[in-house]
Amino acid sequence: MFDYNFHWRPVMKSLPDLLEAASLTLQVAVLAMVLGIVIGLCLALARLHLRGPVYWLATAWVELARNTPALFQLFFFGFGLGAFGLHLSPYLIVLAGLTFNCAGYLAENFRGGFKAVPETQIRASRSLGMTPWQAYSRVVIPQVFRIVYHPITNQMVWAVLMSSLGMLVGFRELSGETQFFASRTFRIFEYFAVTAVIYYAIVKVILLSSRLMAARLFRY
After folding, report:
1. pTM of the complete model
2. Distance of alpha carbon 49 from alpha carbon 39, whole angstroms
3. What mean pLDDT, rounded, does the chain reach?
4. Crossing angle, helix 90-116 and helix 149-162, to 10 degrees?
């Protein structure tokens, strides 16, 4: 039962490739978060202030992103669009899936943040001669980001971990690269144990960086 022999040498030889794949994981997660924040802000504002087709489009995006499995969303961009003749690379499939999912969740976070800022601040800003854009960009949105800062951090962690689903559409990120080497050497436990440590380290760096940034940005 316990006669398994550990062989770490193949893993150590492949470690540079795993670290390179980890950097690709972090790259696609960060890019998806940046796009998700921008789109999420637009979706939140559309649901708060607009009506008609734009409102229903934003609502449909949020509902689909939050109430369907992330794997289904990834398969839609990977295989669903292919049925209509639109074929994306594995990188773009994962980027699109992560962005779609993050934007939907962040939109609700932002919407809650906007509702937490008293409307009197907007009226006070307008009474000082600010345009609606100035009132939102200089008064409201900075407060919203402070309110939703920690949920954004959680979403960033989720994006890193969810990128592992990319291996199912041929994306050679950290999990995909691990699966590739493990299938060649049959050292399944060793490879995935090291990969788990790498994921853990990435998440801890994100959380530590978030804490340091929060201490710097929100001192007052």
Report:
1. 0.89
2. 15
3. 89
4. 160
Other Cβ atoms less than 10 A from the Cβ of 182: the count is 19
Q: How many CB atoms lie within 10 A of CB 212?
A: 10
> How many Å apart are CA 185 and CA 165, to the nearest integer?
22
User: Rounded to an integer, what distance in angstroms lies between the CA atom of residue 105 and that of residue 100?
Assistant: 9
- DSSP letter string, 120-166: HHHHHHHHTT--HHHHIIIIIHHHHHHHTHHHHHHHHHHHHHHGGGG
Burial class of residue 174 in the structure, from the number of CB atoms within 10 Å of its CB (0-12 exposed, 13-18 middle, 19+ buried): buried
The four Cα atoms 55, 58, 59, 61 give a dihedral, to 10 degrees, of 160
How many CB atoms lie under 10 A from the CB of residue 106?
26
What is residue 73's predicted lDDT score, i.e. its pLDDT?
93
Q: Which amino acid is at 185?
A: T
Spatial separation of the C-alpha atoms in residues 147 and 126, rounded to whole Å: 22
Residue with tokens 């960086």: 209
The predicted pLDDT at position 92 comes to 94
Rounded Cα distance, 34 and 27, in Å: 11
- DSSP category for residue 76: I
Q: How far apart are CA 109 and CA 147, in angstroms?
A: 9
Other beta carbons within 10 Å of 197: 10
